[in-house]
Amino acid sequence: MCRHLGYVGPPTSVGELLTRGTHSLRTQAWAPKEMRGGGTINADGFGVAWWRNGACGAPQASRYRNPDPIWTDPAVEEVLPQLVSGAVLGSIRSATVGMPVERAACAPFVDGRWAFSHNGAIPEWRRVLTAVTSDLDVAATRAGATRLFETARLLEAEAATDSAALWVLLRDLLRSTDSGDYAKTPATALRLLVDAVLRHMPTARLNLLIGDGEQVWATTVHHALSAFVTDDVAILSSEPYDDDPRWQPIPDRKLVSARPGVLSIEELTPPDTERSTP
Ligand code: GLN
């Protein structure tokens, strides 16, 4: 179990958001409430991404990560509160058994305007993600796209973890423009990836969260997620950080997108979807 949180709204203090509420993300590191059998505490590091305008005016994700427990890092109260952003994506980690505890394994993983976090685990992830890469390659080749999904790409993962390898595939989907412009439809990329992983490993736990500085998208496969959306703000969080009644629990197997004023919740894999071919 990890816990994550994506925020889009009025400019807010990055550090304050990590400690906001009676059940803040930092508190969830040592006292999470909705564990669903995925671990006990989230003490294997944390990370946070925020956005600034890049050279062409497009939002660009920056990040800070630390492999130590979030409650031990003074930067959370002494440095990160000085950063202000209209979008934030934070994550605290509980390393899956057998995976390294190191900075490079801490979400968020970032690429240009994208930031990503994975709450869950993919059993036999090396075999499964190699097979998923081949599936994506077959689908891209059929669509006449240049070959992006060669299995060697998985070596680009920052760390030897399921989440880091999964990010390489999602990142490449978001980068590819000729096999479907997934950067414009990131929800479709999430659906494609989750479906492919579940086809090879039905017990995979896949609560994914991505943000581009203007919107956040998430999936629920096994783990908890709640949404808080008003006209001004959109937050997706593994657990509500306070007891405001406007938090809305998201059921399992959903694909969620949120921005201020808009919350969309779709079935992740519609029952009539053809699942046997990539
Ligand atoms: N499997 C991922 C990792 O080890 C995510 C862990 C989690 O959700 N607990 O980093």
Automatic annotation (TrEMBL):
The keyword Hydrolase applies. Catalyzes the hydrolysis of the gamma-glutamyl amide bond of hercynyl-gamma-L-glutamyl-L-cysteine sulfoxide to produce hercynylcysteine sulfoxide, a step in the biosynthesis pathway of ergothioneine. Residues 2-278 form the Glutamine amidotransferase type-2 domain. GO terms for molecular function: hydrolase activity, acting on carbon-nitrogen (but not peptide) bonds, in linear amides; transferase activity. This is Gamma-glutamyl-hercynylcysteine sulfoxide hydrolase. It comes from Nocardia amikacinitolerans. HAMAP family: EgtC. The gene is egtC. It is an enzyme of class 3 (hydrolase). Keywords: Glutamine amidotransferase, Hydrolase, Transferase. Pathway: Amino-acid biosynthesis; ergothioneine biosynthesis. Its EC number is 3.5.1.118.
